[in-house]
Design goal:
seven-stranded mixed sheet, four-stranded antiparallel sheet, 11 strands, about 50% strand
């Protein structure tokens, strides 16, 4: 399976926004759903959002619903996670996943 590469993380103040990207190396990327997950220090990895292969359907964890938006551009083999109204509890390493492939993660830190 192809490689996934996340980017876009960083340090942001509470209430701020970030957009994460997940770029894939394979053409068949567009055929499958992609999920975002996150792992905070000392906690288990948790699911954040998923988007279908076509981009027509998306699903969110209750903790991010209304604040995060997942989208994809299959022409660019890329999935995005727009994160608004960020909270300190959103601090984590964010990973994208497709089938059995995982990216290396990108750090998001929400702090004043």
């Amino acid at each position: 399976q192809g490689q996934l590469v996340e980017s876009g993380g960083g340090l942001v103040q509470p209430g701020g926004s970030l957009r994460l990207s997940c770029a894939a190396s394979e053409f068949i990327f567009r055929l499958y759903a992609v999920g975002w997950y996150r792992q905070a220090p000392g906690k288990e990895r948790e699911w954040v959002a998923t988007i279908s292969g076509s981009g027509d359907n998306s699903y969110y964890a209750e903790s991010v619903k209304g604040r995060f938006t997942i989208s994809r551009d299959n022409a660019k083999n890329t999935v995005y996670l727009q994160m608004n109204s960020l909270k300190p509890e959103d601090t984590a390493v964010y990973y994208c996943n497709q089938r059995s492939s995982w990216g290396q993660g990108t750090q998001v830190t929400v702090s004043s």
